[in-house]
Design goal:
This protein is an alpha/beta fold and about 230 residues long. The chain is about 45% helix and about 10% strand. The protein has helices at about 5-10, 30-45, 50-65, 65-75, 80-85, 90-95, 100-105, 120-130, 155-165, 180-190, 215-220, and strands spanning about 15, 110-115, 140, 175, 190-195, 210. Strands 3-2-1-4-5-6 form a six-stranded parallel sheet, covered by helices on one side. The protein starts with a helix and ends in a 6-residue tail after the last helix.
Length: about 230
């Protein structure tokens, strides 16, 4: 995107879509497959088999992503992590094209941008499996090779996606994510938020809207589809 393009889009509404467990159902079990590979990777690098699950869980809680803890505490080879974890996931056999999702995203009357904590290769694979990879103006992702890279729910991750998409006004931003903590931060900075989860949020202050699947988005924000 050029500077001229950014100037032309800076006053338009934009919808930021999370990818994993948001654009597809968590019932597919991708998160379980991912965790199993993370634990196996941890054992491969010498983590104690009896505590690898608890250690990885603490890294996720403390750093927002387990891989950040693995980088900070174990100095892992990021390329090897990508190969053995994200790159080893059988996405193409689990995630199928979703024509209804594609039509819904096409129908939204805003700019469209993918905003994920995953790496770029994984993000592109998922979007391609769903056959919506051509519908997004851009993808803001986590670059594991970048020192101290930002990730949701850190505020600097939201600042990063706004900068990359050329948006300065938080009132123009809409966001759908399956994580309570991720939508909570977005709401705190002024975005309009949609929690996509079968579990209700703990408080009404967490999110503006709550749906059980991303396909229900037009029901809570019909003005964006008129």
């Amino acid at each position: 995107m050029t500077m001229g393009d950014l100037d032309n889009t800076s006053s338009e509404r934009i919808f930021y879509f999370d990818i994993d467990n948001c654009l597809y159902s968590p019932d597919l079990g991708i998160h379980h497959l991912t965790r199993a590979r993370i634990y196996a990777f941890g054992k491969d690098i010498g983590m104690d088999s009896a505590s690898v699950v608890d250690t990885c869980s603490s890294y996720y809680k403390d750093y927002g992503l387990t891989v950040r803890g693995l980088i900070n505490h174990h100095g892992i080879d990021v390329a090897e992590f990508n190969k053995k974890v994200d790159g080893d996931l059988p996405l193409e056999s689990v995630i199928k094209p979703d024509p209804a999702l594609r039509q819904m995203i096409l129908s939204i009357k805003t700019r469209r941008w993918a905003f994920t904590n995953a790496g770029i290769d994984h993000a592109r694979r998922v979007l391609k499996c769903l056959q919506v990879d051509d519908l997004f103006e851009g993808i803001t992702y986590c670059d594991y090779t970048e020192p101290d890279f930002p990730c949701k729910p850190e505020r600097r991750a939201y600042e990063k996606v706004m900068e990359e998409s050329g948006v300065k006004d938080t009132q123009l931003c809409y966001f759908a994510d399956d994580s309570v903590s991720n939508v909570k931060t977005a709401k705190e900075i002024g975005w309009t938020t949609v929690l996509v989860s079968k579990l209700p949020p703990s408080t009404s202050a967490t999110t503006d809207y709550h749906i059980t699947t991303i396909h229900e988005l037009p029901k809570v924000l019909p003005q964006l589809f008129m």
